[in-house]
C-alpha cells in the first residue's frame, strides 16, 4: 500500500464538513486520489520500432509524468526514456523480443520521468505487428513497495555498495542461472560495459556476448554456451582458471553453491602472480642451463687437460723416438757411402775373381745397397710421422702460416692410418687421393687443422672397420676417399667413407660436446666438437655433413684462402 492510499484513508468523511462547498471540494480530492491510484495500478503501453515511438497510452504518459501523449511521441528516440547505464541492456532485450515470442516474465527496469527523475517499473515485452511490420510493445507497471519492505531498497543499496568495495569480482546467480547481482569489479575484469547485464539477465547472455567478441575462438556458439552453462551447476566449491582474451587478464574463478539453490562466483585477478611465476620459472631454467653449461665446461676442461697431458706425453715419446731414428737415418746414409768406398777399393781385384764368385759378390752388393735404400726411405717416412705427431700434439699454440694443404692432408692421412694399423694389424683399407693441384698454399694454423683431419680420418677408419666386422661380408672392401678442390676464394676438403653411416638424429647432434656414438671408454665426444670450433670459429670456414645409414658418411670442410687471425677471446665470443 503506497502513500497515496494511506492519504486516501486518512481523509475525513464527507459528513464531517460544515458546508456543502467544503464537502464538494473534499469529494473532488477523493476522486483525484482514486484516479491517481487507479492509473498507477494499470499498465502503461508503448510501442516502438528501431527506436521510433509509434504509440503511447495515456496511462503510460501519466506514469512518466508527461501532461499528454503527444509529448512522449515527440521524443526523438525511445532511449530518451532509458538511463544511460541501462541502454545497452535494453537494446539487447528489444533485439531478443523482435526475434520471436519470449517468456512472459517481468523485468525490473528503470525509466526517466519528464522531470528527469528515475522511476522503477515492472516490464513485459511482446513482439507485435504494427502497420504491417514487427515492433516492440512494452507494458510498464509502476512498482508499489509495501510498507513492510520500505527498507529493502536501502538495504539493497548497502549490499551493492559492500560488494562493489570488494577487490574481487562477484557474480550472483539464482537457481535458474539468471543474474541476481554483480559488482563493478566483475564488469571490469571481464571487460563488460557497466550495466550491460542487469539483474534477471540469463548468464547465457554473457556467454553469447563472449562468443561474439571472439573469446572462445572458432567454435559452434550454441554448443559452446550450453557446455559452459553446465559448469555453473556445481555441488561443491570448485576453482578454475580462465584468460580473458580481450584484455589478457588471467582470472582465478571460484564457484560455490548457495543454500537457496543459487550460486556465488568470485573472480580473482592473478595476472601479476602468473607473470611473476613465469619470470621465476624462466629465471630458474636459465640458472639451470647456466649451471649445466658450467658443469659441461668444467668436464670439458678436465678432458682437455687430460688431452694436453696426453699430448705432452706423446711429444715426449716422439722426441725420444726421434733420437734413435736420427741414428738409423744417419748410419744408413753413412753405410751407403762406406759401401761405395769399399767397392772402389775392391775394384782392382775384380780381375782375380772367377765368374761364379764375381756373380755372388755383385748379388751381395746389390742386396746391401737395396737394403740401405729401404732403411733410408722408411727412416725418412718414420721421421715424417714423428714430425706429424709432434705438430699434432702441440695443439692450438701454432702460428698462422701459408701451408701446402694437399701435403698437410696427406701427412694427416698417413699418420691416422698407421696409428689405426698399429692398434689392429688385421685392418686394411683402400685409400684414394684426389688432390687438386690448384689448391696450393692456404693460410691456416697447420697444427690445429692437422688435429681436425686426424680426428676425421680416425672416425672414418673406425666406421669402415665397424661395418666390416658387423657385416661379415667377405666381399666388403673398406674404402676412404679424400678429395681437395679449389676455387678463387675457397678450398674444400671432402672425406668420404663407405662405413656404417649415421641416421639423421645422430647427424643433428654430431657437433654437441660429449656426444659420441662409440661405446663407453672408446670416445670422449670432444673430437668433432673441437674440430667444429677450429674450422668454423677459428678459421671461419664451413663444416658440412651428409650420411646414409649403413651406406656412407661424408664430411666437407670449406676454408677461405685468407682469413684474419682470431684470438682465443674472440673465438669464445663467436
Automatic annotation (TrEMBL):
Keywords: Coiled coil, Kinase, Phosphoprotein, Transferase
Coiled coil: 273-304
InterPro entries: HATPase_C_sf, HATPase_dom, His_kinase_dom, HisK_dim/P_dom, HisK_dim/P_sf, PAS, PAS-like_dom_sf, Sig_transdc_His_kin-like_C
EC number: 2.7.13.3
Molecular functions per Gene Ontology: phosphorelay sensor kinase activity
Sequence ranges assigned to domain Histidine kinase in this UniProt record: 316-563
Pfam families membership: HATPase_c (PF02518), HisKA (PF00512), PAS_7 (PF12860)
Highest taxon of the lineage: Bacteria
Catalytic activity, as annotated: ATP + protein L-histidine = ADP + protein N-phospho-L-histidine
Protein name in the entry: histidine kinase
Native species: Azospirillum thiophilum
Taxonomic lineage of the native organism: Bacteria, Pseudomonadati, Pseudomonadota, Alphaproteobacteria, Rhodospirillales
Amino acid at each position: 500500500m503506497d502513500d497515496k492510499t494511506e492519504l486516501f484513508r486518512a481523509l475525513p468523511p464527507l459528513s464531517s464538513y460544515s458546508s456543502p462547498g467544503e464537502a464538494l471540494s473534499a469529494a473532488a480530492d477523493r476522486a483525484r486520489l482514486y484516479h491517481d491510484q487507479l492509473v498507477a495500478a494499470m499498465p502503461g503501453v508503448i510501442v516502438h520500432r528501431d527506436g521510433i515511438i509509434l504509440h503511447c497510452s495515456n496511462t503510460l504518459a501519466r506514469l512518466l509524468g508527461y501532461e499528454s501523449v503527444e509529448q512522449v511521441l515527440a521524443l526523438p528516440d525511445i532511449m530518451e526514456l532509458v538511463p544511460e547505464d541501462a541502454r545497452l541492456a535494453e537494446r539487447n532485450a528489444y533485439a531478443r523480443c523482435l526475434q520471436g515470442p519470449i517468456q512472459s516474465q517481468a523485468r525490473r527496469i528503470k525509466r526517466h520521468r519528464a522531470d528527469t527523475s528515475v522511476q522503477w517499473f515492472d516490464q513485459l515485452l511482446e513482439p507485435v505487428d504494427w502497420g504491417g511490420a514487427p515492433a516492440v510493445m512494452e507494458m510498464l507497471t509502476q512498482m508499489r513497495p509495501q510498507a513492510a519492505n520500505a527498507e529493502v531498497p536501502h538495504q539493497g543499496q548497502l549490499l551493492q555498495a559492500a560488494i562493489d568495495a570488494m577487490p574481487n569480482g562477484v557474480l550472483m546467480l539464482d537457481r535458474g542461472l539468471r543474474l541476481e547481482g554483480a559488482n563493478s569489479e566483475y564488469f571490469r575484469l571481464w571487460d563488460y560495459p557497466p550495466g550491460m547485464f542487469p539483474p534477471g539477465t540469463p548468464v547465457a547472455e554473457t556467454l553469447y556476448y563472449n562468443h561474439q567478441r571472439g573469446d572462445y575462438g572458432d567454435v559452434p556458439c550454441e554448443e559452446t554456451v550450453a557446455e559452459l552453462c553446465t559448469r555453473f551447476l556445481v555441488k561443491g566449491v570448485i576453482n578454475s582458471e580462465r584468460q580473458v582474451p580481450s584484455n589478457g587478464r588471467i582470472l582465478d574463478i571460484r564457484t560455490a553453491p548457495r543454500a537457496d539453490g543459487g550460486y556465488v562466483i568470485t573472480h580473482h585477478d592473478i595476472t601479476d602472480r602468473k607473470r611473476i611465476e613465469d619470470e621465476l620459472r624462466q629465471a630458474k631454467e636459465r640458472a639451470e642451463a647456466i649451471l649445466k653449461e658450467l658443469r659441461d665446461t668444467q668436464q670439458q676442461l678436465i678432458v682437455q687437460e687430460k688431452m694436453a697431458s696426453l699430448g705432452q706425453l706423446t711429444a715426449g715419446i716422439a722426441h725420444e723416438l726421434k733420437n734413435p731414428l736420427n741414428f738409423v737415418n744417419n748410419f744408413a746414409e753413412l753405410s751407403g757411402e762406406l759401401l761405395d768406398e769399399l767397392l772402389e777399393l775392391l775394384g782392382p781385384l775384380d780381375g782375380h775373381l772367377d765368374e761364379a764368385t764375381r756373380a755372388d759378390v755383385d748379388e751381395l752388393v746389390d742386396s746391401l745397397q737395396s737394403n740401405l735404400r729401404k732403411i733410408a726411405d722408411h727412416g725418412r717416412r718414420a721421421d715424417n710421422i714423428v714430425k706429424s705427431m709432434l705438430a699434432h700434439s702441440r695443439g692450438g699454440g701454432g702460428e698462422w702460416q701459408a701451408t701446402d694443404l694437399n701435403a698437410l692432408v696427406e701427412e694427416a692421412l698417413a699418420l691416422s692410418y698407421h696409428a689405426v694399423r698399429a692398434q689392429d694389424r688385421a685392418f686394411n683399407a683402400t685409400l684414394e687421393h684426389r688432390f687438386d693441384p690448384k689448391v696450393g698454399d692456404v693460410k691456416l694454423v697447420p697444427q690445429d687443422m692437422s688435429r681436425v683431419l686426424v680426428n676425421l680420418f680416425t672416425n672414418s677408419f673406425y666406421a669402415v672397420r665397424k661395418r666390416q666386422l658387423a657385416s661379415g661380408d667377405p666381399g666388403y672392401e673398406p674404402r676412404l676417399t679424400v678429395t681437395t678442390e679449389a676455387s678463387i676464394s675457397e678450398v674444400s676438403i671432402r672425406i668420404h667413407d663407405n662405413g656404417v653411416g649415421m641416421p639423421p638424429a645422430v647427424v643433428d647432434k654430431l657437433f654437441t660436446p660429449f656426444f659420441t656414438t662409440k661405446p663407453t671408454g672408446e670416445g670422449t665426444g670432444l673430437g668433432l666438437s673441437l674440430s667444429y670450433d677450429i674450422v668454423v670459429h677459428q678459421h671461419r670456414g664451413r663444416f658440412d655433413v651428409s650420411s646414409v645409414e649403413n651406406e656412407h658418411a661424408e664430411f666437407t670442410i670449406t676454408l677461405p684462402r685468407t682469413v684474419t687471425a682470431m684470438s682465443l677471446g674472440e673465438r669464445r665470443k663467436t
